[in-house]
């Protein structure tokens, strides 16, 4: 389990959905799942919703007290924490490191401190629960993929991490190409159909 995401009762101005719609118009939020920054400084939120054609999308973002260079989504005022800057997860080294760790550790989504159910149950494909990912350095990023370097259990690795905007079943992906064996899949509570959430591809093998 990825830890416990601390959820504070607070007012957000503007609302999270308003900020996200400025990035992705017609986005209708349906729910989210959380991951946890080990240092407790950065919120990692995979917001799940639909577009104008009722297709499921994911908008992974982070919440920070200071703005990063690149990948800005916007900002909001949190009635408890103050100004929070939203950043696309592919541009945030904390999010990238935690997503890679979840994949390699075979971990799942974090619990919420308010016990509210999350929209997806996720699972990393790996089998090494003790995985540590440190010293993440982003080389290049776009909205759906990032090229980065990090230390995986102390060993330097280069990798590509893909976070597809549209959530498609694994079987659809297999029809067009072979998916990476290092991945995160997720299922809705009313379905058994696994969806592709993230893929990790080593670059130095």
From TrEMBL:
Name by which UniProt lists this protein: Maltokinase N-terminal cap domain-containing protein
Keywords of the record: ATP-binding, Kinase, Nucleotide-binding, Transferase
Molecular function terms, GO-annotated: ATP binding; kinase activity
Domain of life according to the entry: Bacteria
Transmembrane annotation, as ranges: none
Record flagged with keyword Ubl conjugation: no
Coiled coil start-end: none
Pfam families recorded: Mak_N_cap
Sequence ranges assigned to domain Maltokinase N-terminal cap in this UniProt record: 27-92
Upper taxonomic lineage: Bacteria, Bacillati, Actinomycetota, Actinomycetes, Mycobacteriales
Keyword 4Fe-4S among UniProt keywords: no
């Amino acid at each position: 389990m990825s830890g416990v995401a601390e959820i504070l009762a607070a007012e957000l101005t503007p609302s999270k959905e308003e900020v996200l719609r400025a990035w992705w118009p017609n986005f209708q939020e349906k729910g989210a799942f959380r991951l946890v920054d080990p240092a407790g400084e950065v919120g990692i939120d995979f917001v799940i919703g639909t577009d104008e054609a009722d297709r499921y999308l994911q908008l992974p973002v982070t919440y920070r007290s200071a703005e990063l260079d690149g990948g800005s989504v916007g900002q909001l005022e949190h009635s408890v924490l103050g100004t929070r800057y939203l950043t696309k997860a592919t541009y945030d080294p904390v999010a990238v490191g935690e997503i890679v760790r979840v994949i390699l550790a075979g971990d799942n989504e974090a619990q919420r401190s308010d016990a509210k159910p999350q929209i997806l149950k996720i699972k990393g494909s790996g089998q090494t629960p003790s995985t540590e990912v440190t010293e993440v350095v982003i080389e290049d990023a776009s909205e759906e993929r990032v090229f980065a370097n990090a230390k995986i259990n102390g060993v330097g690795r280069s990798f590509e991490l893909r976070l597809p905007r549209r959530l498609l079943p694994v079987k659809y992906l297999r029809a067009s190409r072979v998916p990476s064996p290092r991945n995160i899949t997720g299922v809705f509570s009313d379905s058994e159909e696994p969806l592709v959430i993230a893929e990790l591809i080593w670059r130095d093998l």
